[in-house]
Design brief:
With 204 residues, this protein is of the alpha+beta class. It is 42% helix and 19% strand. A hairpin with a 5-residue loop joins strand 3 and strand 4.
């Protein structure tokens, strides 16, 4: 197996234990201890992404970067938590001094640090405005295979209503259960996501 493939397998996301969730959190990991609230698709989610992305581009003008709308709020017609997922790619996410202070200046706060998983950082911003409660800004290195996976999944759901509806049904079923952390709910969707991505890879 090529070295890059081996490295990617080692870094693939697996369900996280409570200890791992707490260790990755910057500060206390927020607990859910309840059900996940889903809302019908709201076109204001795309507007919130565009507004926040423009602000991010402004403050990171001196840093080479790309930003994309990902997650369920990026798929028209899909139910979702009212949390806008954004993906920011940078040359070196581990160099927090190069971008975190600038993002803090527009309301984002570093919430998760996972250097062992593609140097992932997560920043959160609350009170996005009408329609969207908050934003999650995922930071990965340029060319990261996890970003490719996230955007491939988004594009598959946008283009295939059958897979979008399957994912929506799965989300509703899982959201009705009780979870200690939102990450537990996210991890529980892994099998259906893998199934949909496999179809996408086959071109079926």
């Amino acid at each position: 197996m090529p070295a890059q493939e081996s490295q990617d397998e080692e870094q693939a996301r697996v369900p996280m234990s409570a200890q791992e969730i707490e260790a990755a959190a910057v500060g206390a990991a927020p607990r859910l201890d309840g059900q996940v609230t889903l809302r019908a698709y709201d076109p204001r989610w795309a507007e919130a992404f565009a507004r926040e992305a423009a602000a991010i581009r402004d403050v990171l003008g001196g840093v080479r970067h790309e930003i994309e709308h990902a997650g369920s709020t990026s798929v028209p017609g899909l139910v979702a938590k009212p949390v806008v997922d954004m993906v920011l790619t940078l040359p070196e996410p581990g160099d927090e001094a190069a971008y975190v202070p600038a993002l803090e200046g527009i309301g984002f706060r570093l919430a998760i640090r996972e250097p062992e998983w593609f140097e992932h950082r997560l920043l959160r911003k609350q009170d996005l405005g009408p329609g969207a409660d908050s934003a999650n800004l995922h930071v990965f290195p340029s060319g990261c295979p996890e970003v490719t996976r996230m955007l491939s999944f988004r594009d598959r759901l946008r283009a295939h209503p059958d897979d979008r509806d399957l994912y929506a049904r799965t989300k509703r079923q899982l959201a009705a259960r009780t979870w200690a952390y939102v990450q537990n709910y996210a991890d529980a969707k892994s099998d259906v996501i893998a199934e949909i991505l496999e179809r996408a890879a086959r071109g079926s």
